[in-house]
Write a structure and sequence with these properties.
Beta-lactamase, binds glutamine, about 45% helix, two-stranded antiparallel sheet, about 325 residues, five-stranded antiparallel sheet, alpha+beta, globular, 2 domains
């Protein structure tokens, strides 16, 4: 069966993005991530959808210039950078690539190896951040901010209030970090690692930024707008693989079934999706479901995937013809 949009000749990415926003707009279910007190103060109704192509074009609808904290989406980018900084074998010796089926903040490690299951849940991400903290020392946060900025194509900043809020209340993550230290998965200092982790989670992005970051990943590591080389090619492949299998936590299987593109969500309300060699996709809507994923973000991605035939196994996937359609 052909997907809706493919049946019509009149086709623009702007109209598809606007329609995804409109169709998902009405669902005001879900809750803000109040376990980080400062996130409970975020205006709950913002909603934006942005798509950026590897050709440098951006289509946006709704609140795509509203800043929000990147939160767990930083895990994918930090992983991509760590693979390059310390090398794939070292990263793999500390963190696995197996979906856990557990919540993002689960206190559970692979019983066979004592490593965290994957880098997209907190335990794995804290371990990866520890590798960066160990390799880069005091320069580590500036390095991450610089690389995230290069991926977005503009200088990003971080939200000191959200950082302080999580640093003061993040006892579960402290517990996870101490257990990782005890098991040997975390080599670096616990406090330095957590400080870097809370900071990286507090980097501010807009949906437009996130879509451009996604386009940089889709463009195998080179920012399509600026031409900057941001991520290593091999690291992008590994990162997209774990985003596909693990990026939506214990919703990853449903996501792969329905939407079928590598993605990563964050409790700040963002979702980043990547269509390999074609598009970066981003949504922002801070009301979350019980698994910590943005309710309207999921709905908008489902609409886009259906309209554009994005699912990696969709037999009617337009492939690179999508870009031609966008430009036309
Ligand atoms: N900073 C948040 C935490 O560690 C990130 C979690 C998330 O976005 N899922 O709890």
């Amino acid at each position: 069966m052909l997907s809706r949009e493919k049946e019509t000749a009149a086709y623009s990415l702007e109209s598809v993005v606007a329609r995804a926003l409109t169709r998902a707009q009405g669902d005001l279910s879900g809750e803000l991530a109040a376990y980080i007190p400062e996130l409970a103060r975020v205006p709950p109704d913002a909603f934006g959808v942005a798509v950026a192509s590897v050709g440098g074009d951006v289509a946006a609808a709704g609140d795509t210039e509203v800043p929000f904290t990147i939160q767990s989406i930083s895990k994918a980018l930090a992983y991509c950078l760590a693979l390059d900084v310390v090398g794939t074998p070292t990263v793999l010796s500390h963190v696995g690539v197996e979906p856990s089926g557990d919540a993002f903040n689960a206190i559970v490690f692979d019983p066979g190896t004592n490593r965290p299951f994957n880098p997209m849940v907190n335990a794995g991400a804290i371990t990866v951040t520890g590798l960066l903290a160990g390799a880069l020392g005091a320069e580590a946060f500036d390095f991450l901010l610089d690389r995230f900025s290069a991926a977005a194509g503009r200088p990003l900043s971080f939200d000191a209030d959200v950082y302080r809020s999580e640093a003061e209340t993040g006892h579960r993550n402290r517990g996870i970090a101490h257990l990782l230290k005890c098991s040997g998965a975390l080599a670096a200092d616990v406090d330095a690692t957590l400080d870097l982790y809370f900071r990286q989670c507090s980097i501010l992005v807009t949906a437009s930024d996130l879509a451009r970051i996604g386009a940089t990943l889709a463009n195998i590591g080179e920012n399509p707008g600026t031409g900057a080389a941001v991520f290593a090619v091999e690291a992008v492949r590994h990162t997209l693989s774990v985003m596909f299998t693990c990026g939506m936590y214990n919703f990853a299987g449903n996501w792969a079934f329905d939407v079928g593109v590598p993605a990563k969500s964050g409790v700040g309300g963002g979702i980043l999706g990547v269509v390999n060699r074609q598009l970066g996709i981003a949504t922002y809507s801070p009301r979350l479901d019980a698994k910590g994923n943005s309710v309207r973000g999921i709905a908008a991605f489902q609409e886009l995937a259906e309209d554009l035939g994005l699912h990696v196994f969709d037999p009617t996937n337009r492939g690179s013809a999508l870009l031609g359609a966008f430009k036309g």
